[in-house]
Amino acid sequence: LRLFSGSANTVLAQEVARYLGIDLGPMIRKRFADGELYIQIQESIRGCDVYLIQPSCYPVNDHLMELLIVIDACRRASARQITAVIPYYGYARADRKTAGRESITAKLVANLITEAGATRILAMDLHSAQIQGYFDIPFDHVYASPVILDYLASKELHDIVVVSPDVGGVARARAFAKKLNDAPLAIIDKRRQAHNVAEVLNVIGDVKGKTAVLVDDMIDTGGTITEGARLLRQEGARQVYACATHAVFSPPAIERLSSGVFEEVIVTNTIPVPEDKQFEQLTVLSVA
Ligand code: R5P
């Protein structure tokens, strides 16, 4: 078994390597003057089971291209199996056409990764689980929920209501509610008018006097979850916690999330959270 890391999340990759008691494989990574990337694996991987850890997070195009180039290098080096470990699968939100003449980027990315030579995929908390079906190779879809739920359990919260910030996230929130002693569920009826602009309309369910735990797959600009939290407060929630696997944190997420509406914002390290994106109420859990 050999473990390699792209440049997107070397801290997570090192942590995984420590768990496995192995070193990360050596790799040269250089940029040409025009921005093109050069990768060379620095040891023989002939006949090996190779695992590559690379979330396709910001800057997504660079990290995705790097993943493809590393896979290609491994294939041409005669690796027996190449597992692309993609803790955060970018371009996942366009998983179907919602208007004419759009691209389905989640499928396009699946084609690229398969064509590059990956023989197996391991991804965490896909935006929609059906993306697994875009691949014709084995796919392990794993969840951060055990890590987040363990943490929530350690806080001994009372009177919990689990809230999905939109209708699409109900199955995820229901799974959380079940694990939190069958806590009740509420749903925010959200209508989105443009990309990255969230408009919150209504809470379905009772949140008055309760500890609301908002659950989402990702926090990007923070609009969805912050608007949701404000509405929950208006509806009488006593405290609001936000939980999300992927801390995409595009501006102005930090301003929104640290505005005081949340008791705590709980995310994982599928995407690295640099120091300048950390704030008082933020907890980053490791999924290594
Ligand atoms: C939407 O379907 C997703 O599950 C997230 O709710 C959304 O992508 C978060 O984006 P933002 O933080 O920009 O509102």
Count of DSSP H/I helices: 7
Number of strands: 14
Counting structural domains, the number is 2
User: What's the overall geometry?
Assistant: globular
| Helicity level | 25-40%
CATH structural class of the largest domain: Alpha Beta
Distance between the termini: 17 Å
Biggest sheet features: 7 strands, mixed
- In the predicted model, the low-confidence regions spanning at least 5 consecutive residues are none
Structural class: alpha/beta
CATH topology-level name of the largest domain? Rossmann fold
* Chain oligomer state: single chain
Share of β-strand residues = 25-35%
Give the SSE order as H and E letters.
EHEEEHEHEEHEHEEEHEHEE
Please characterize this protein's 3D structure.
The protein is α/β, with parallel strands linked by helices and 288 residues long. It folds into 2 domains: 2-142, Rossmann fold (3-Layer(aba) Sandwich); 145-285, 3-Layer(aba) Sandwich (Rossmann fold). The protein is 27% helix and 29% strand. The strands form 3 sheets. It has a 7-stranded mixed beta sheet with strand order 10-9-8-11-12-13-14. Strands 1-4-5-6-7 form a 5-stranded parallel beta sheet, sandwiched between helices. Helix 2 (60-76) packs parallel to helix 3 (105-116). It starts with a strand and ends with a strand. It binds ribose-5-phosphate. Ribose-5-phosphate (R5P) binds at residues 165-166, 168-169, 196, 198, 216-224.
